[in-house]
Amino acid sequence: MTKRKNNDVSWTESSIKNFRYYVASDFIDQLQSSFEQLDIKQRNFAEKLGLTEGRVSQVFNDPGNLTLDTMIKWGRAAGLKTGIVLYNDSDTKNIRGPLTGSIFVECWKAAGSPLDLSNIQPHTFTPQIYEGAIQDVKKYEPKSQDKTGEGLSVLSKRFGDQSASIRQESQKEI
C-alpha cells in the first residue's frame, strides 16, 4: 500500500460506492465489537434475523451494499440502535476520510450517555466542547453585537453557572 501525501484525498472520496463500503464496514466492526461486549453468538444472531450463520458471516466479511433498513434491522437484532450522524470536521476535501462511529459512541459515553443536549453531564463539558457547542447553537441564536457572547444564553440555560467559567477558560486558550 502506498503512503498518501498530505494533500491526497481519502480512498472514500473517489466514489460513493467506496464511501458506502467504508460506512458499512464500520457498522459491521461496531456490530462485531458489540457481540463480544454483550456475549452475543453469531449463530444466535443469525437465528434472530432468520438467516443462516453462513450468510451473516458473508456479510461480516464483505458488507458491500448494506442498506439502511438492513443496518437498522441488524442493530435491533443485537439490541442496539442505529443512527446516522452528519458532522463538519473542516475536511472539505475528505483528505482524512470519515470518522468511525466508535468516536461518536465514545464521546456520547464520556458525556454521560445523554438522551438529548439538556442531559449532557456538566463535568464533561470542557472548554473545547463549549467552543464547539457555541458553533452549533449559532444558527439558533440571534446575531449578537458581542461576538464572544453568541450562544451563551442557550448554553447558560443548559449548564447553569458552570458555562460562564468554562467560557472564560476557553477564551484563555484561544
Q: What's the architecture of the largest domain in CATH terms?
A: Orthogonal Bundle
Overall pLDDT confidence: 74
Residues in helix, %:
40-55%
Q: In one word, what is the shape?
A: flat
Please provide a written account of the structure.
- This protein has 174 residues and is mainly α.
- The chain has 2 domains: 94 residues, lambda repressor-like DNA-binding domains (434 Repressor (Amino-terminal Domain), Orthogonal Bundle); 56 residues, no CATH class.
- 52% of the residues lie in helices and 0% in strands.
- It has 8 helices and no strands.
Features:
2 domains, mainly alpha, flat, 434 Repressor (Amino-terminal Domain), 0% strand, disordered C terminus, single chain, 174 residues
Short description:
The protein has eight helices and no strands. It is mostly helical and 174 residues long.
